[in-house]
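How a chain folds remains the central question behind the approach discussed here. No coordinates are needed to read the tokens, only the vocabulary itself. For completeness, the protein is quoted in full, as a sequence line and a line of structure tokens:
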Amino acid sequence: MKKSHLNSSVFFFVLILSISVSWAALSSILDVTPGPEDFLSCIRSYSNNLTSISEHIFTSGNASFLPTWQVHVQNTKFLKPSTPKPSVIVTPVDETLVKTSLHCAKKHGYELRMRSGGHDYEGLSYTADVPFVMLDFTKMRSIDVDVANSTAWVQAGAALGAVYYAISQKTDTLYFPAGVCPTVGVGGYMGGGGYGNLLRKYGSAADNVIDVRFMDVNGNILNRKTMGEDFFWAIRGGGVSSFGIVLAWKLRLVPVPEKVTVFILNKTLEQGATELFYKYQSVIPAIDRNLHMRTQVFGEYIGNTTKKTVRIMFEGIYQGTINTLLPLLNKKFPELGVTREICEEVRSIQSTLVFWGLPSSAPIEILLNRSAIAKLNDKTKSDYVRTPIPINGLRKIWRKLMENDESGQLMINPFGGRMADFSETEIPYPHRAGVLLQFLKTVNFQDQTSDTTPTSLKRIAWLQSLDELMTPYVSKNPREAYVNYNDLDLGVGSANYKEASVWGERYWKRDNFKKLIRIKAKVDPLNFFRRPQSIPVFSTPLSDI
């Protein structure tokens, strides 16, 4: 009798053990939704510090859960009750908790999302329609600037504004060629390529990444040497979250003069804006690579009248003095009318303030204050122009802008210069030689309660009609798009290459996309790191397709 009871107990123990070991697989088969307690129990089993866990891990029952999720939702259209939120938020302060979180998410059937700054245009770093754990890297944001070697190690949770500030505290003759939005997180930004006011001089941000500290799907910490050049190639522009977890990037800092020249000039249709922009398309991508001149285009009313016009804002930054800039523009683009009176010589860190819409006299410490920088509330689409848009095409675009209710705008950056020196396969980011301009098209919902109000839906329809209108004037086969301006309207299918190529080739072009798929199959063959528009894994080898 005792022996029978013992055998039953052993059988029951083994049964329970086998169920617990295989729960992650079983839950996916039976479509059983995991609860946060299993993840928390797993975390506790690897830590003796329960206080630390309570300070860095949050579930929906915790008062800090919602504020922690909300604080870095940079596109506020997602700040609504219906937005799917994480089962668990982890805010690690060290790599140990990152590794444990990865292990426990895999064990208990959660997907994993990594958020460094929260600027994902489709909210994919902090929302999902499946149970997921969000790693928020805000507390891992150290920046180590090495002026002597012109490098910086930057943790994934640091924001660009903090990077620029840290550099400026040590030197005014080095900077990093990245974007002007101070709150963009470093972790994901480099993984999509990254561009800014120095792209014509030094290329993309990813071109200037020289090493990495990276955690793969098995929890191994790798660097450039140990991961190998193909893997390192993939994470610089190929959408890094498809491959693993960036812990820190090593950046190459680039030389800049102590003072750079900035200017802003507005022109309306009545002042010849159409003809100026037509010339801008050819002149600026071919001009001295020390000059970058962004444009923003708005449809707006003329004063208090009911008549509309288009205003183009020309925003220039020159890596040199006013005395050198003016002769250059007078020779290459005299029609623009840049004068000494509208030019200002400032430090590079101040130029970032100016391009973010702040006065150069604003305290540079504002770049450290993420809450002081306005958030977005919009829908965007991107395009690349390889042939100048003709005058009649520009006029069609202007008319479309004037149909809008002043919620839409265009932001246009010129390419050429250093960007044309790279092969489109140098890194996964392919938008290189031959690109004249990058277009960002956007509508905002700032005055709306959500992005689904009748007015918001009308604005989205307008944006889609603008996108269609521009089809004849932008790149073709594929129609290129920028992965850091991800757009789920392009498609999300990934069951096979034909489905995935619809969006994948637009971001990376065919050769790069296929190479990314091959690398993904090697480093994450079970496709743990996945989300809409992540690099897919196919059951059929790519060579057989």
